[in-house]
Design goal:
Blueprint lengths: L141 E3 L2 E2 L1 H23 L1
Antiparallel strand pairs: 1-2
């Protein structure tokens, strides 16, 4: 069996012999099709039999990046980074800072520095630890509950290096 959709109906993607059917007009470029614009109407960019790209223009969803398209990922699905009109879509929460996003930490949770709309969240304070304070010293690099502020650690390291270099420069004189 190439497929099994639980029925013996033809025309639904899997025929009564459990063979894969390729359906023109479903918006997916499949075997035997040169185009598929989600319908079987001629004169709108793709012929009714999904064989001819009409008008010589770009056909969104064919997987070929053509003039007028910002992207073409081979489908007409929204929400996957390339829209059904072949324009770039930002997808907040995918871990990649895209157009319109100030940050993207790979989730849609608030109170972790980057909010559910991929914009930076305000922090209230940065408390640097006491050098050598150890656990229980009451100092923390957390600006938000349970989330370390790595920027503060890098700042602490950078300041320590500058201080060390400054001391070495004085002892060399």
């Amino acid at each position: 069996e190439a497929c099994d959709d639980g029925n013996l109906n033809n025309g639904d993607g899997c025929n009564n012999l459990c063979e894969r059917e390729y359906i023109c007009g479903n918006g997916v470029l499949e075997q035997g099709e040169n185009c598929d614009d989600s319908n079987t109407i001629s004169g709108d960019g793709c012929s009714s039999d999904c064989q001819t790209i009409e008008g010589g223009g770009a056909l969104c969803g064919n997987g070929i990046w053509e003039t007028g398209e910002a992207c073409d990922d081979g489908n007409l699905n929204n929400g996957d980074g390339c829209s059904s009109s072949c324009q770039i879509q930002s997808t907040c929460g995918n871990g990649i800072a895209e157009v319109g996003e100030a940050c993207d930490d790979g989730n849609l949770e608030n109170n972790d520095g980057c909010d559910e709309t991929c914009q930076f969240e305000p922090t209230t304070e940065v408390v640097l630890p006491i050098i050598g304070g150890g656990s229980g010293s009451g100092c923390s690099l957390n600006t938000l509950p349970g989330k370390p502020n790595l920027g503060a650690w890098f700042l602490l390291i950078a300041l320590s290096l500058l201080f060390t270099l400054s001391l070495r420069g004085r002892s060399a004189k």
